[in-house]
Write a structure and sequence with these properties.
- Strand 5 and strand 6 form a beta hairpin.
- It contains 1 helix and 25 strands.
- It has a 5-stranded mixed β-sheet, with no helix packed on it. The protein has a 4-stranded antiparallel β-sheet with strand order 2-1-5-6, with no helix packed on it.
- It is mainly beta.
- It folds into 3 domains: 56 residues, no CATH class; 90 residues, Immunoglobulin-like (Sandwich); 123 residues, Macroglobulin (MG2) domain (Immunoglobulin-like), CATH 2.60.40.
Length: 287
Amino acid sequence: MFWFSQGSSTIYAYSYSPVNDTYMTAWFDLSGGAIVLHDLSVYNEIDGTMTLYDSFTINSSGQPESISVNPNSAQQDEVLRVVISGQDTHFDQGSSTDVWFTQGSPTCTNFWILSDTLLVAEFDLTGVSPGLRDLNVYNDIDGTLTLSDSFTVTAYDPKLTSVTPAGAYQGQKLSVRISGQNTSFEQGSGSVVWLSQGSSLIVARQANAIGEKFNQPGSGIAVIADFDIPTDANSGMWDVHTFSEVGGQLTLTDGFMIVQPGDWTSDGVVNFLDLAVIAKYWLQGGE
């Protein structure tokens, strides 16, 4: 007698053919079998019942395959988590699970199996070159499943995008918000902000990053900087600079305007034209 068992489920061989004392062939109908590891048991009057535990796996009739990854792109040097979905997969039932990208091999630092068809993986993209990657998932039931060209690593290209307010008058004290794209400012006192026009510099008396990037404690996505604009500062456009150990130095050319009090067009006369400039540059935050 031959049978597979898993819990209370038992599948008996409907036929068998002994070859010798140590070898025989058995036929099973697995159409209703659970998709999981099974024990194999054999019985005869001389040997009794002999069992080989977790020795046989019933797979799904469908071909298992990874079907999606979300998100499907990230920037160099990021640490991120992706959701991997599968079809007819056995993430939870299988063992020896591994997850990885090919083409440069970003490191999978951890993963969490949520079900047979869903897992979350965390990747460290530090030092990884830009380009497409294949996603690979392995377990001892499904084998290696590959989703080709499914993930894109984009180049790290941080830049400053805006300053609010974008202008001030000579002698003004104000706070400005500096925002960026793909930036990673250092929180606390680690960020330095200054304005430049030719050889003239105006350094913010303090600057603090706000917001925090996922899995990067201490890194911010914007900077609040407090300035004391000198009464004799040159009028005109100034470049805005930021520096932190996390993001390095970034510059927004002609990102800030300094004018004489009331003369926002820098034409030496206060008139209605100044109102148009004020509407564009003047926001709350000054004293």
